[in-house]
Design brief:
- With about 160 residues, this protein is mainly α.
- The chain has two domains: about 50 residues; about 80 residues.
- It is built from ten helices and no strands.
Length: about 160
């Protein structure tokens, strides 16, 4: 039971750090100044880790990134994989995913709101698109870890192809 409480506290600090990250510097410093010393000790390292991820942590996509920060054991790796895969060219995505079964492709598409997702779906014939969207409904049963592993595998696969 104590382990569960520790994990929940860690998730709360991750969420708080992310929300603080999108504030102005002045507002962030004011909020940090209101924390107890032991809370600040836990929060500071999380904020430092988030500072290294500035390119993905903009106010427009905080809602989208929040589940990855809360669910991933190592959210830096999760966000790093997202950055790699989201930055891939459509042709590379098409090539990488053509080898995969529909359930894998669907799980990857469901993991994040990819910048290339609409173009990828549009590039498919109607039957393939419909099949992927149907699998997408089935993939909600997959755990976060399984979906993350698939995305991480795609990121590694494409990095090794360079």
């Amino acid at each position: 039971m104590a382990e569960r409480k520790r994990t929940m506290t860690e998730q709360h600090f991750k969420k708080a750090a992310l929300l603080l990250k999108v504030l102005s510097d002045e507002d962030r410093q004011w909020m940090i100044g209101k924390l107890k010393q032991d809370e600040n000790i836990v929060l500071e390292p999380v904020l430092e880790r988030l500072d290294q991820l500035d390119n993905i942590l903009i106010a427009d996509n905080v809602q989208q990134v929040l589940p990855h920060i809360l669910q991933a054991e190592n959210f830096e790796n999760s966000l790093h994989s997202i950055i790699i895969v989201d930055g891939m060219a459509l042709k590379r995505i098409q090539y990488a995913l053509q080898q995969e079964p529909n359930w894998v492709t669907s799980a990857i598409l469901d993991f994040y709101d990819w910048s290339w997702k609409a173009a990828y779906l549009k590039s498919l014939d109607l039957r393939s698109r419909r099949s992927l969207l149907q699998k997408n409904n089935d993939n909600h049963q997959l755990s976060y870890k399984v979906k993350h592993a698939l995305v991480e595998g795609l990121a590694l696969h494409t990095q090794n192809a360079n």
